[in-house]
Design goal:
It is a single chain. The chain is mainly alpha-helical. The protein is built from 9 helices and 2 strands, in the order ααααααααββα. It has a two-stranded antiparallel ribbon with strand order 1-2. Helix 2 packs antiparallel against helix 8 and helix 4 packs antiparallel against helix 9.
């Protein structure tokens, strides 16, 4: 299997997992289990946002966020960020009753990542894109890491959804 085909399959996994979530009551979607600042709504938003921002940096293109998701989700200035380093107060500002919108945004970003993978040729996967780390980060490493981050956050939402009470 070539890297593009393998990554294309991987890229869709977070969206598939999010689509399998039960419909969450808005109180659960915006809950802060154990007093943690990251609600399920924040986790779904961040899963998509971090992928979107980093993918746009890789492609040199525009963020999927600009394709109507910013307006639909209406998260204000906090929504334009990506969640890394958010203070508890910033994270708690991400509130949404639109689970379908949050998962739709994630699906759109996952599709964009899969399309991008199809444009990459031999040698581009191993290209170093960030030498500020040790070891330096390759394009493949960055792509896998953004999908992995999204999948972990969707898993956290699934855990909260499966809890009998908050």
């Amino acid at each position: 299997m070539d890297p593009a085909a393998l990554f294309t399959d991987l890229a869709h996994r977070p969206a598939q997992a999010a689509a399998a979530l039960p419909t969450l009551d808005p109180d659960v979607l915006n809950a802060h289990p154990g007093g943690h600042p990251n609600s399920p709504a924040w986790l779904l938003w961040h899963a998509a946002r971090q992928m979107d921002v980093q993918l746009a940096q890789l492609t040199g293109g525009t963020e999927v966020w600009a394709d109507g998701w910013r307006d639909r989700l209406n998260l204000g200035p906090t929504g334009d960020g990506l969640g890394y380093g958010d203070s508890p107060e910033q994270a708690e500002r991400v509130k949404s009753d639109d689970q379908e919108g949050l998962t739709g945004y994630l699906a759109a970003v996952c599709s964009a990542a899969a399309r991008y993978a199809g444009t990459l040729r031999e040698g581009q996967w191993e290209e170093i894109i960030d030498d500020s780390h040790d070891p330096p980060v390759t394009r493949a490493t960055r792509l896998v890491s953004i999908v992995d981050d999204a999948a972990q956050h969707v898993g956290q939402v699934a855990y909260v959804a499966g809890m009998s009470s908050l």
